[in-house]
Each structure stands twice: as C-alpha cells, then as structure tokens.
C-alpha cells in the first residue's frame, strides 16, 4: 500500500485534461483498485492547485458528503476543503473519517499542494489488521465491547479555535448559531446534546459498533471505532454503552497495535491519494511549516 499510478513517461507529465479523461474512461476499474488496495496514489501528474484537484474528484461522479466533525477546516473551491487546520506541531490520531456519524464517506481524497520540509506524513493503517490482533490478545474484552456497543462524548466550543486540532466550534459544525436548529441537525446525525454554561456543548453518541464488515472487502472485520482517539481525553470519552469502563491496558495496547501496523506515507508535491475510508484509518504526523494538504470526501 498504496497502489501507485504514474504517467507512462515520468519525464513527460500529462496535462490535467488528459488525466481527467483517463480517470473518467476507467472510473469503474479505478474504484475497484481503491477497494482492492485500500489506497491508490496518483503521483507525477501535473496537479497544481485546488481547481485541478476538484476536476479529478468530479471525474468519478461520486456524490459529495459534507464533513461533520471537530477538525477546523476552510472551504477552498467547490468540493475542496483544507485538511485539519490544527497546529502542525500536533499529531492527529488515526481514525476513519466521520466514523461516529450515521452517514460517513466511503472515500477520502487528499491532495498535496505544499509538501512539508520535515515530518507531516499521513500514516494509514489497514483496519482489519487491528481487529485481528486485538481478537488474538483480548478476545473476551473485544467481544464484550462488540456485544454492548460503545458510547462516546465530545465537548465543543461555540466558535472555532484553530489553536486546537479539535477546535471546530459547534456553530460551524452544524452550520447555524441557533441552538434549536443545531439540536435538530445533531439529532439527525444520531447525536444527543447537552448545553454548557460557557456556551459550548457536549455531544453524546451511541451505542456504536466496535467493528464493521463491508461488502467487497473479503468479509474482514474493520476496527471501525475511535476508542483510542477519544478514551480518557480532556474533551472526550469512550465507554461501553452500558457505562462499563474500557480497561486502560486494552486501550494502551490497541494504540501500540495501530502504530505497529501503520504505513508512513510521505507526501510529494502534486500527489493525490485516494483512501478507502471503510478499510483504512489515517492520521497526520507533526510537521514543520509550511504544509498544505487539501481534502474531498465522497459517498
């Protein structure tokens, strides 16, 4: 991983129109390659900016899906947004995009406009490998979590705070400053809300599955949760749905397994990386500035 696709003649970059035409012509094959390989990289093509990237995204005809989550992001062009704008010095932990929302994207597509001078890799992990290892080491706890389901909570401020990788305010997240409308939109996404005295909100989600099996992925159980990312943090929690605590040693070992199975992907300028969001966790390594990676999410 990933499957790397490059121009036939490396020293002769094809123009963006030729690339888009090739993608449109072979879109069914390309989608099967994403499912088969979990990650596909276009490298060495003349992809310069958000406009070029958007043309690539739209070549496939996949429906757009609006991002809902804690990461501060800025809309750039049509279907293109910035990736998490939190401080580059922070590590963004491995996750399936929008894993806790009822409707999550099948594909996460990333474009490197400015590669970092140091660090800033986007590591990703074959999710089924985490399940396999956790079942081997903690079979009883894994099956207990699977049977009971999981419950998460997350606290969000009112306005965006770009000093934090989880600093997206609830007004931006739900596209409204009206609390009644925000609750209505949150409920539609499967969230309950508790308003806080400081103007922030606590969102509660669950019960949620521990693992999921998706069509076309060999019946593998994907580690489709965010236990490690939310357990025992200052602004979030992860428990079994009946309130049972998840053992600390299980969470710690899961974190180690995810790191052990990770693939450290290093960006080059113009890279376009397609991730099967149903099969891969991904994150972001700390980075020196500048680093600019753009994102689109698709159904």
Automatic annotation (TrEMBL):
Q: Enumerate the SUPFAM superfamilies for this protein.
A: Clavaminate synthase-like
Record-annotated membrane-spanning stretches = none
Organism domain of life: Eukaryota
- Note whether Ribosomal protein occurs among the keywords: no
Its Gene Ontology molecular function terms?
Answer: oxidoreductase activity
Q: Is Oxidoreductase included in the keywords of this UniProt record?
A: yes
The record, for InterPro entries, names:
AlphaKG_dependent_hydroxylases, TauD-like_sf, TauD/TfdA-like
Using the record's annotation, list all stretches that form the TauD/TfdA-like domain.
Answer: 15-295
Task: Kindly state which keywords UniProt assigns to this record, in alphabetical order.
Answer: Oxidoreductase
State the name under which the record lists this protein: TauD/TfdA-like domain-containing protein
